[in-house]
Amino acid sequence: MKPILFVACEKVIIAEQTHALSLITVMTGADVHSVNPRETTEMPANAIIPMSWAVLAMWKPSQQDVGESFVQRLEVRWPNGDQFVVAAQPFSQADDKPHPVYANVIGFPSGQAGDVTIRLWLEHNGARITEEFEYFIKVTHESRPVTASTT
Q1: pLDDT digit string (tens) for 26-36?
Q2: How many beta carbons lie within 10 A of that of residue 94, not counting itself?
Q3: What pTM was estimated for this model as a whole?
């Protein structure tokens, strides 16, 4: 198995009849803005944006992979390296066509500026069979002071 696509996005849609794949809003960065009435207020390091997003990998099988079962392993880590999400997704490779495997993640780690790291690899019969692949989403913070408005 070889990865031919590895991406984070807001949503993955797979058409029921044709199995056509659509990705909505590929994620490469997140500008997190907080409205701080006091300059000394900082965002909590464990702040999470309440949103759903997805990580997708597309695996290209070899002839030997057809009929075999695999487990896709996924880790999402905060910029400081702490673990945010871990997932294991078993799947079977029924034919020689590329196979999409995706995970929906609830909540986005936004409290720390820096790279949110997504790691992905494949296992077969309990052993890792691919290298570890990485994807990064750059989180930046910006404070916006509250300003009075006139109406």
Answers
A1: 999 998 876 65
A2: 11
A3: 0.87
